[in-house]
Every structure is written in C-alpha cells, then in structure tokens.
Design goal:
Helices cover 81% and strands 0% of the residues. It is built from eight helices and no strands. The chain starts with a helix and ends in a 5-residue tail after the last helix. By secondary structure, it is mainly alpha-helical. The chain is flat and about 70 Å long. It has one domain: MetI-like fold, CATH 1.10.3720.10. The longest helix has 37 residues.
Length: 215
Amino acid sequence: MSITTMLVTMSDGMLKTFGIFFLTLLGALPLGMVVALLKKSRFLVVRGIVGIYISVVRGTPLMLQLLAWYFGPYYLFGWEIGGWRYPAIIVGFVLNYAAYFAEIYRGGIESIPVGQYEAAEVLGYSHTQTFMRIILPQVIKRIMPAITNEIITLVKDTSLAFTLAYQEVFSIAKQIAASQTSFMPFVIAGVFYFVANYLVEFVMKRIEKSMDYYK
C-alpha cells in the first residue's frame, strides 16, 4: 500500500478525530466555567457535589470513564447501547475536560485581587456586571497558557476513542500497520498529531497576543 493510499484510507479517521476535538471543546469550555462557579457556590451541598465530581474525574483514567459511559447504561438499566458509542465518547470527553478546565478557571478567578470586586461595587456594578466586564477578561488572559496545554493534551487524548472501537485516526493506523506489516501508518498518524498541535499552539498564541493589553 502506497503512502497516498494510506493517507486516503486514514482521512476519514482524521475527520473523526477533529470531530471529537471540536465537540469536546465546544462542550467542555463553557461547562468548565459553570462547574468553576458552582465550586465557589455559597451552598455547601453544591460545593460538595461539584468537588466529588472533579475529584472522581481527575482521579480516574479517561479510558475507564469512556468505558463507564458506554457500558454503564446497559449494565445499570438494561438500555440498548447500539447507537450510543459516539455520544458516549463525546459525553466522556466533555465531562472529563470540563473538570480540568474548571480548576483552571477557578485558579484564575481566585487570582484576581478582592479589591477589584470592592471597587466595582463602589462604582455601582452588579455581581454579574463585575464578573463579565471586569473579572472574566482578566481571568481569560491569565489562564491562556494553562488552557493551551489542556487543548494540546486533548488533541492527543482523542486517540483514546479506540477504547470503544471508534475508528479515529490512530485506530485506523494500527489496523493498516498490522495488515501491511508497516510502520509508516504510525508515522503518518504522528505527523497528523504534530501538525494539529502546532496549529493549536499557533492559534492560541495569536489569541494570547491579541489580549496583551500592555502593548
């Protein structure tokens, strides 16, 4: 099998990998903020539930979480899971990364001096206005390096979708390598991940540079 044929064969897996990546970001970034705010809730029960969720997600492998989300409905409720594979992958990735993003957001929020909240209150800002107009822009700027690292990790973690027999790029690479007794599919997959991460880093640096308020 030629390299061109391998690329064509693996192209579908590349699209599926991008699909997991983008849907995870689309769900995990905003959900992470919600979780971070709930973690700072004045209600002890809410903080406790959110704390348990974050601890469980961060304390167990993503691979195990994917298996739990896929097989859990069947073993617990006897539900048919024939068409549940892809939704289970997305749910597993979103909830996993939302927990990590939440901790990044929380660290950024807590790094803002209390005096800024007090100054905003004196100026007549509501809590929502203070957060959206004063706190959040500073938080985003401060957490960009950490968010970039997590997004780069996400690109590589998409390969864990093979756990549920989903045909993303790494799974297809393994199949071709086994059938052709060739290492080239792994090289192609490696180049794909490298280029994807390079693009992520490039875009995130551009965003971070655009938020440099001091220049």
